[in-house]
Write a structure and sequence with these properties.
Radius of gyration: 20 Å
InterPro entries: DUF1989
Number of domains: 1
Bound molecules: zinc ion
Organism: Tritonibacter litoralis
Protein name: DUF1989 domain-containing protein
Shape: globular
Number of strands: 13
Pfam family, one: DUF1989
Length: 285
């Protein structure tokens, strides 16, 4: 078969000029009770903390109704976050659908949605000290749901090396340790992440995924309200601030701090965890 020559049709410009429509208008999403969450946060006390070492990951648990905060300490560092339902690891963060609902990058007031068939909010972002960043001149923004997670398989494919401290491997080890299971049992539960503090976008000319030095500085944080009982795992990416490369030990890396806060009894009133999605699952039969 010879290579096909593609020529643009006469009306190519007119076809390209058609205005886009939003795939998933999100005005009908359930209202997030941000005022209630912020009032409850005012009453909260710290109950736990975990320090994630550079180029490694740690797990943590957050009961529904509590808050967790991820803070940059010591130096600029991005983190790869996985979330699971603590009672059912089959329900886990769904990066792709979260992107479809909220856009390429998350900030305060937006939610991390779970996989099918539950498709419900797992966590709500309640504070983001990088919320000022917006979208820069390159189309970059922070806290993306467009990347996957750095992993040793892609590293092998592109560089021919075995590198063991990618976020995928770090998260696999952290989950295996949390569950007390083998790496092989833990690995299939690791999933596409929320790239905390990472500054990313797509190039306008080639559509390629890009990263650039994170604007995060020590003291910056992203805070979440746990909508359901959660197990989380956070990797301090070997890319450090992701200004140059990942999947190697070349970048300067720093720890990340995870803290858990419990509101006072009654601070959330009669709030209940979100129900699972009510689609009847008959799939047309
Ligand atoms: Zn990474």
């Amino acid at each position: 078969m010879t290579k096909q020559e593609i020529t643009a049709p006469a009306d190519a410009a007119a076809r390209r000029a058609v205005a886009p429509v939003i795939c998933y208008p999100n005005e009908t999403l359930p209202t997030v009770a941000m005022d209630l969450y912020h009032a409850a946060r005012e009453t909260a006390q710290k109950v736990d903390e975990v320090l994630v070492p550079p180029r490694d990951a740690r797990s943590f648990t957050v009961p529904q109704g509590q808050f967790f905060r991820i803070t940059s300490v010591e130096g600029p560092q991005v983190g790869d976050l996985n979330l699971w339902n603590a009672k059912d690891l089959g329900e886990r963060f769904y990066s792709g659908k979260t992107r479809a609902l909220h856009g390429t990058h998350l900030t305060a007031g937006e939610q991390m949605w779970s996989s099918f068939p539950t498709l419900r909010p797992m966590a709500t972002i309640t504070a983001d000290t990088l919320g000022w960043y917006g979208i820069d001149e390159f189309g970059g923004s922070v806290h993306d749901v467009i990347g996957t997670r750095c992993d040793p398989y892609t590293g092998k494919l592109l560089k021919g090396v075995d590198y063991h401290n990618c976020c995928h491997s770090n998260l696999t080890r952290a989950l295996a340790d949390h569950l007390g299971v083998s790496l092989a049992e833990a690995e299939p539960h690791v999933h596409d992440v929320l790239n905390v503090f990472m500054c990313t976008g797509f190039t306008r000319d080639t559509g390629q995924y890009f990263m650039k030095a994170s604007p995060v500085r020590p003291g910056d944080y992203l805070e979440f309200f746990a909508e359901i009982d959660l197990v989380g795992a956070l990797s301090a990416c070997p890319g450090g601030d992701c200004s140059s490369e990942h999947t190697s030990d070349a970048a300067a890396c720093y720890p990340l701090l995870v803290e858990v806060f419990a509101p006072a009894d009654g601070a959330l009133g009669d709030r209940q965890p979100p129900a699972v999605n009510t689609y009847d699952r008959s799939h047309g039969r």
